[in-house]
# Entry
Amino acid sequence: MRILMLADWWFSLEEPPRTSKLAMFVQGPVFESLSSLVVVLNAAFMFYATDYGIHHLGDDRTPFMAMAERLFLVFFVGELFLRLIAHGVYFFCNDEMKWNIFDFVLVFIAVYDEASNTFVSMQTGVDTNMTFMRSMRVIKMVK
# Structure
């Protein structure tokens, strides 16, 4: 019963209008367009990386591929951070709640993947890859 009451309360929360410069920037067309462009570029890169992986089974990623994946990750972490600051706690209960939680989980998994990949490759010299989890970012294009 308490869980239902908590859920009702959570879903009834409404985000107040955001008027800060950061909020205007994050909600503006330039930031949205840039974010969409990076998602599309990331999708194209993932297709390239998958094709490369198929043709070079057993080989490690190239330094270019590792750097590009890190750059995409840095952008997605930055995007999430700016959105979290702009919306505050309402990031998790506004009109875009489902997409925001989806993005948060994807970025968290990507950071975990990169950290574990770095740790494993430092310990063993073997490059691990969770391309499937990275491919979930493509779903963001549906948004």
Summary: The chain has a mean pLDDT of 84. Helices lie at 2-12, 21-27, 29-55, 63-87, 97-124, 131-135.
